[in-house]
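cron nightly-structures :: item 1 of 1
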Amino acid sequence: MVKFETAKEIFYTPFFELIYKAYTIHKENFDASKIQACSLLSIQTGGCSEDCAWCAQSSRNKTKMPKQIITDLKTILDAAQKAKEIGSSRFCMGSSGRMPNREFFEMICKVVKEVKKLGLETCLTMGTLTEDQVKTLKDCGLDYYNHNIESSPEYYKNIVTTRTMDEKINTINLVQKYDINVCSGGIIGMGETNEDRIKMFVLLANLKKPPASIPINRLIKIPGTPLENAPDVDTFDFVRSIALARILMPKSFVRLSAGRETMSEELQALCFFAGANSIFVGEKLLTVRNSDYQKDFELLKKLNMSLL
């Protein structure tokens, strides 16, 4: 059991000592010269009833993004094939909304089976799930389920009021009960404190089993959302967050996720040194632009790194 005070002491370790410790732990558990590439496709976008303060897809925010659904299997499989061709080993599919309805869920189950035939790992994010839905996804062969906790339990209610942290944890527990890998992390830069960030990683580390993947997003300030004018994240605090995740959860993939297109090559390299070993590649992350994958590969080449 990881204690908050222990994690806080780690977080505030002198910076170079901290990232050196994270890098050492990373090398003990992974090939530090390898990066996992994942791709993300939004299958259902916009029109969401939730009020997540960072999200362009919420119908409660001023963005007013209409709901769009991809139901054509070929379109999804073409996207998965392209992801594989540019080096992704995992294909992630996102759906806006509180939870999937029956018709959409049945379609997604078919998609999972077909994507797996391409030789890709599959990951879904569809919000809250029932136990029967989790059982069905397990039978379909789903590899990962993404359900981010976003922040600390204390700060969560400041950014989402339409669902609770307990609901999040319940879905995560169900996914783990049926031995589907959990992908769960959060967003840095929503106005939370370093203590909130520490508490988020302590919560993740103290799950029945730490997440197999931990996406760490740097807030993208989207016009029309309540967080469009959020204060900038201190760069060193962001790197400290990466390092803490690596130290507390040494065997998990730590994914440098949304916000990478605003990061310099030097900052990304520092995050890799601090323990990040997974990225999203491709043109978009749900509704926002992603870092250009050609530039990603150029950076990896400069760093003498390569894809898994």
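cron nightly-structures :: done
Residues 135 and 178 are 7 Å apart (CA to CA).
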